[in-house]
Amino acid sequence: MAYEFKTTRRVEFSDTDMAGIMHYANFFRFMETAEHGFYRSLGFSVVMPETDPRLGWPRVHAECDYKKPLRFEDLVEIHLLVAEKRSKVVTYGFRFRKLNEEPTIEVARGALVIVCVAHQPDGKMSAVPIPREIADQIEVAPPELLERV
Amino acid sequence: MAYEFKTTRRVEFSDTDMAGIMHYANFFRFMETAEHGFYRSLGFSVVMPETDPRLGWPRVHAECDYKKPLRFEDLVEIHLLVAEKRSKVVTYGFRFRKLNEEPTIEVARGALVIVCVAHQPDGKMSAVPIPREIADQIEVAPPELLERV
Amino acid sequence: MAYEFKTTRRVEFSDTDMAGIMHYANFFRFMETAEHGFYRSLGFSVVMPETDPRLGWPRVHAECDYKKPLRFEDLVEIHLLVAEKRSKVVTYGFRFRKLNEEPTIEVARGALVIVCVAHQPDGKMSAVPIPREIADQIEVAPPELLERV
Amino acid sequence: MAYEFKTTRRVEFSDTDMAGIMHYANFFRFMETAEHGFYRSLGFSVVMPETDPRLGWPRVHAECDYKKPLRFEDLVEIHLLVAEKRSKVVTYGFRFRKLNEEPTIEVARGALVIVCVAHQPDGKMSAVPIPREIADQIEVAPPELLERV
């Protein structure tokens, strides 16, 4: 059972914009990087071509609160926390922490709400229960971790 | 006085991901495209190098609700609405509508909360009132537009 | 028969990097935008899900020469020219011209070499002749257009 | 003195496109990642805000030859080699090698030609000699490394 995952990224030149900071949309790419690393840490990949019907994990909601900017070559920790787990839906919280300054500071918080879907033969997607071998490995993080400011 | 702006984009190959749909982070790039087009429609640019101190418009919050996927070559209308206006902060709502199907359907909704800041000589940013020549041109959209499902 | 196509793009905030100019990798996204617009102008899409076997158009070579930077909100024309046409391979040349200055100036030149492939059942790709209904519509641009400095 | 640098990247979901492979423009982002890591390995950053005049390293040419696709979660080594060194210009070669298969295979080769420039007070850039403390650390790779197929 796992309720969290941490990974780090260095902000690249192509992540920045002309304001000299990481472009705000790229925080969402970094959240996804942590999410997929979380799955790998549990022994599976978000892409499961062999399942029938083929499963997908589209997001139905994404959000981010920005507190401090990230700059080129900043080293950032992305901390994923399982915030909610339902039959067909998982909500992740994310904490972005800049590591290359003492003390390290939280620069942003995000969240993703993800639905497990099956791809139907007609190209449509329908929500389905998260496969048990995955659901059994995921648990909600302790409230004190989720609420910590 | 303006409370809305519409622009269209065709989903490009580089906007898609291996799920065959527009990557979810790109909706945030499209929101910004509409925001900056809104400013141009009012006669100014979000980049104002000649102001002293130099002004910036960082986002403090961004969110998106995804209802239907967008696919390659879909034509999408991004409809910006001024949702809230305060001295130093503007909140925009966004409606994404896929135009290349009849009837057209809303595929996503988003929001951006943006603060007007001045860049200080020491590199820090501090929130400042939105310049009057800009603030005077922006008004909040009628409630029925904001609430319409 | 067509040997050229022109489209325009406005440089967006998310296209820029901290050097204040369009990030160099984005010129390749813009080339592809022109390429796919060229196909649409001929009445087809680069994505042809109904062909059997499914066709693809991977690039085997891409290059760009940068002369002048593009900046935020610059209006740029991307001019595609068919530079070479062989049974299974097409080479496109691209001219990037900044339109929001008089006289307009060429800021970059690029090229893409594209192979027509069929996706085999085992997941591999093999080069195949370009379908006749497409090949018949494409011709090499006059040499004076290709050589013009 | 250094003539090479290696770094690795895992292909992320947002690096892929609807063809199920890494989008071709992203190879150029990866080249730059290796280039900037090379500079860090030599003890400096490509961004040098304190130099006067401020230096920049725009690319004047970029190219890539694609042999095999990269897919989601592939682990790729980006191998930078100094191919040519002149007073104001450096040319780097890049080898992309997919590490998560035995034997590892080269999937792409790239090159970047980079000019050292000084930003003038009027906003223009002019080519200048590479600062000696940097130039003294960089040497051209042995020919057998550059020519190896």
List the keywords.
homotetramer; 149 residues; alpha+beta; 5-stranded antiparallel sheet; 3-stranded antiparallel sheet; 37% strand
Strand and helix map with partners:
The structure is a homotetramer of 149-residue chains.
Chain A: E1 4-10, H1 26-41, E2 55-56, E3 59-66, E4 75-85, E5 89-98, E6 105-115, E7 117-119, E8 125-127, H2 132-135, H3 143-147
Antiparallel strand pairs in A: 1-4, 2-7, 3-6, 4-5, 5-6, 7-8
Outline the structure in words:
4 copies of one chain form a homotetramer. With 149 residues, the first copy, chain A, is α+β, with helices and mostly antiparallel strands. Helix content of chain A is 17%, strand content 37%. The first copy, chain A, has 3 helices and 8 strands, in the order βαβββββββαα. Chain A has helices spanning 26-41, 132-135, 143-147, and strands at 4-10, 55-56, 59-66, 75-85, 89-98, 105-115, 117-119, 125-127. Chain A has a 5-stranded antiparallel beta sheet with strand order 1-4-5-6-3, with helices on one face. The radius of gyration of chain A is 16 Å and the shape is globular. The model of chain A has no long low-confidence stretch (mean pLDDT 94). β3 of chain C pairs antiparallel with β3 (59-66) of chain D, so a sheet runs across the interface.
